[in-house]
Amino acid sequence: MYESPFTRTAQMDNLCMEIAEMVGRLEPAGTLGTSPVLHRALRIQTIHSSLMVEGNTLSLDQVTAILDGKHVLGDCDDIREVENAGRAYALLPELDPLSLEDLLRAHHAMTEGLVPSAGRLRDSNVGIFDGERLIHAGSPAAYVPELMGDLFGWLAQTDLHPLLRSCVFHYEFEFIHPFADGNGRTGRLWHTLLLSRWRDPLAWLPVEGVILRRQQDYYAAFARAEALGDCAPFVEYMLEAIHEALTPYCQERRPADLRKESALAFLAANPHATIAQVAEHLGVSRATVDRLIAALRDEGRLERTGSRRAGAWKVRR
User: Fold this and answer.
1) Residue 128 pLDDT more than 80?
2) Do 164 and 190 belong to one domain?
3) 69, 95, 230, 267: which sits with the fewest CB atoms below 10 Å from its CB?
4) pLDDT for res 184
């Protein structure tokens, strides 16, 4: 059986233990697992972050509008990337993480109309670039089908912890670079799919946002792993990103803090909502919402753009 060049470290084991404990502390009825409003807001953030890593120039507000079916002004390919990513992430519940055929289906959804070979393994050589700098030359095209078959065979048989398995797969996928384009977007989506099959709430975990904030570290970890011939640096980086993304949902928070998070998630998904609508969503009085919004504004987490009647809320995470 194919084996990834992978050295397990104490840091990995500690991170896996901490992440497992954090997931165990998630409340069964907590917002990460059950809130449709939060799910929508996180999915929009995830798509925006993953596409920004690849150079998409659209703002979070524009991405939100596109996924709401609205028309926006912007680069046609950037807009198509958002539409495609929305369709690709919507497929997550029905994709089999052990199926190469389903991976091709996800890639087709992600790159349709953007890449001539959408949904097909590449037949020419490619590389990974950070701007103009070549970071990695993908595996020779002639070997890609065999390598992907071996990788999925390994994924089905390995006894590694699901967290480690997902990170190793992510590295090996990007190392092979099986598609002509869309490898980064598809690899991150598949990582989320693998995490979600371990624990359902992780389908909504915005790991891509951490990768965007630490993008240079993402590339550096990949480069170190390639130089060592061992994917350990990349695995450690991804475990740290998962840990960081999960932390806000596992902290002990007072009811008032939870109410703030619920209000922010609702306003991120509904930027034109009225005070009355926020109050109805939270099940509190309008006076309570007025105080809540004032506090969020003072904290720099919420602002109002435009007029009182025709303006919109802008959430700052």
Assistant:
1) no
2) yes
3) 69
4) 93
Using the 3D structure, point to which of 249, 280, 297 is the last residue of a domain.
249
Q: Is the per-residue pLDDT at 308 higher than 90?
A: no
**Best mean pLDDT range from 240-249, 261-270, 302-311:** 240-249
Q: Per mean pLDDT, which range of 12-26, 162-176, 226-240 is the poorest?
A: 12-26
pTM comes to: 0.78
Regarding whether 76 and 184 lie in a shared domain, the answer is: yes
The pLDDT of residue 268 is 87
In which domain, by residue range, is 228 found? 10-249
**238 and 307 within one domain:** no
DSSP string, the chain: ---------HHHHHHHHHHHHHHHHS-TT-HHHH-HHHHHHHHHHHHHHHHHHTT----HHHHHHHHTT----S-HHHHHHHHHHHHHHHTGGG--TT-HHHHHHHHHHHHTTT-TTTTS--SS--EEEETTEEEEEPPPGGGHHHHHHHHHHHHHH--S-HHHHHHHHHHHHHHH--SSS-HHHHHHHHHHHHHHHHSGGGGG--HHHHHHHTHHHHHHHHHHHHHHT--HHHHHHHHHHHHHHHGGGTS---HHHHHHHHHHHHHHH-TT--HHHHHHHHTS-HHHHHHHHHHHHHTTSEEEES-TTT-EEEE--
Question: Percent of the chain having pLDDT more than 90?
Answer: 62
Looking at residue 37, its pLDDT comes to 78
